[in-house]
Write a structure and sequence with these properties.
Pfam families: Pkinase. GO terms for molecular function: ATP binding; protein serine/threonine kinase activity. Keywords: ATP-binding, Nucleotide-binding. By secondary structure, the chain is mainly α. It has a single domain, classed as Orthogonal Bundle (Transferase(Phosphotransferase), domain 1), CATH 1.10.510.10. The chain is 40% helix and 4% strand. The chain has a two-stranded antiparallel ribbon with strand order 1-2. Helix 2 runs antiparallel to helix 6.
Length: 184
């Protein structure tokens, strides 16, 4: 697990048309059933599991961070979730994904929030991704992009796309076709 996926840790090789993930300083090998430190990742890209102190996370933490980066790119809002601290970060996420989904996630993993945090978060309905589309970003948003984003930004880490599933997603069909035609 990289555990610090963010734009500053992605290098672009334009000539080879490749992305490289750098700064593996917080990375750790994943072992099922192991509990991991939640004090990792950069705030705007932290998965909900870190924000609710759930130590049983896995590779999908990095997929959440990818989803945050992707949302920032297609909606031209960087960072997409802009919390002032970890509690505010969870609040900003809940305002978009809704508290019903958050509460289902907390219940499934028997996570109890601090009463102050629970009060701060309040109650919010899930927002439609279309609410973030405007004249400046409309050309970046497609049905495939929204579907891809929606499958990455899930409270429950077990419901997120895996890296393999993400690479096979329809959103990347044109990229795969172009690479195949270039003989790569």
């Amino acid at each position: 697990m990289h555990r610090d996926v963010k734009p500053h840790n992605v290098m672009i090789d334009h000539e080879l048309r490749k992305l490289r993930l750098i700064d593996w300083g917080l990375a750790e090998f994943y072992f099922p059933e192991k509990e991991y430190n939640v004090r990792v990742a950069s705030r705007y890209f932290k998965g909900p599991e870190l924000l609710v102190d759930f130590q049983g996370y896995d590779y999908s933490l990095d997929m959440w961070s990818l989803g945050c980066m992707f949302a920032g790119m297609i909606f031209r809002k960087e960072p997409f979730f802009y919390g002032h601290d970890n509690h505010d970060q969870l609040f900003k996420i809940a305002k978009v994904l809704g508290t019903d989904e958050l509460n289902a996630y907390l219940g499934k993993y028997r996570i109890v929030l601090d009463p102050q945090l629970e009060a701060l978060i309040g109650r919010h309905n899930r927002k439609s991704w279309s609410k973030f589309v405007n004249a400046e970003n409309r050309h970046l948003v497609s049905e495939e992009a929204i579907d891809f984003l929606d499958k990455l930004l899930r409270f429950d880490h077990q419901d997120r796309l895996t890296a393999e599933e993400a690479m096979a997603h329809e959103y990347f069909h044109q990229v795969r076709a172009a690479e195949n035609s270039r003989g790569r």
